[in-house]
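One thing: can you check what follows?
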Amino acid sequence: MNNQKNKDDDRIILEQIIEGSEKALYKFYNKYNKIVFNFVASKITDKYVADEIAQDIMIQFLERSRDFRFQCSIRTFLMVVAKNKIVDYIRRKKTAGLIVGGMPDFIIENCYHVFFDPKLENKELRALLEKVFSLIPHDYAKVLRLKYVDNLSIKEIAHKLARSFKSTESLVFRARKAFISQYEESEKVFSIVPSTTAKRS
């Protein structure tokens, strides 16, 4: 009975988040962020890294919340994602820098076919990313650079921008969503890829 009630409550919260409710977003974080962090921290001793992975899990889930069909509970789903993230982190740590070291995970996942085009040089990839950054709102680009280029934590970004922790989490969430949306909707931004590769062939 409690499990069903919890699932019903989560369904309502998720629907409210999709509709843009900041209150529901904060409620979701308060309910699950600590659970995810504690699980990751039990496997990865570096608390800073554990916090970053936990934040990434939460944000990625929210970005794809429209596709969640409650075939299992949100808690179970987050734990499965956390296990995979931990394995991925350990694997990446061993092979850091061999392929696309330093690139944010959320960009790699959503621009996979661009990142792993063997004909695309790193400098061209950087140019493509900069173009997308220039097309999203300035505050979104700024917060993404602070988090993924300067490698600042949410807490450090909040202090730097004089915002609350939760407000900064929400900003990062919206910024990532805007970046991905801009990438998906701006095919012409990436149309230089075929032309640049063609010149070398």
Observations:
- The radius of gyration is 18 Å.
